Amino acid sequence: MSEHRTGIGAFLKGVAELFAPARQEEPAPAQESYASPSPETAARLPFGSDYLEGAHPTVLSRLVETNMEHTSGYGTDAYCESARQKIRAAVGCPEAAVHFLVGGTQTNAAVIDALLRPYQGVVAPETGHIAVHETGAVEFCGHKVLTLPAKEGKITAAAIRETCAAYWANGTREHMVMPGMVYLSQPTEYGTLYSKAELTAIHEACRQYRMRLFVDGARLAYALACPDNDVTLADLAKLCDVFYIGGTKCGAMFGEAVVIPDKKLLPYFTMTMKQHGALLAKGRLLGVQFDALFTNELYLNLGGPAIWAAGRLREKLTEKGYPLCVASPTNQVFTAIENGKVAALHDRTGCENWEPFDETHTVVRFVTSWATTPEDVEALIALL
Question: Which residue in 165, 201, 251, 348 has the most C-beta neighbors within 10 A?
Answer without folding.
Answer: 251
